[in-house]
Amino acid sequence: MGVMTKRAKWAFGKKEDAEKFKAENGGDLTSFEQTVKAAYEDMYADTQMIRERRKMSKMEHKHDY
């Protein structure tokens, strides 16, 4: 809750804290590099979705005139 993407990414200072969070909430522990890759993949998917929605919106409003 509180994230703006479909896949939440949480950072922890200590591995023990991350493991405790995972035990309570589920999820996966990943390296920094894997997390950055996931962030870029999510950003790409979100950008594609936004572009598609804008395209559809323009097409719908084009017929309003």
Report on the structure:
The protein is mainly alpha-helical and 65 residues long. It has a domain at 30-65. The chain is 65% helix and 0% strand. The protein is built from two helices and no strands. It is elongated. The N and C termini lie far apart (41 Å).
Largest sheet: none
Unreliable stretches: none
| Mean pLDDT across residues | 87
Order of helices and strands: HH
Helix proportion: 55-70%
Cα distance spanning the termini = 41 Å
Q: Which value, in Å, is the CA radius of gyration? A: 18 Å
Number of helices: 2
Strand composition percent: under 5%
Shape type: elongated
The SS-based structural class is mainly alpha
What labels describe this entry?
65 residues, 2 helices, mainly alpha, single chain, elongated
Q: Could you provide a short overview of the structure?
A:
This protein has 65 residues and is mainly α. The protein has two helices and no strands.
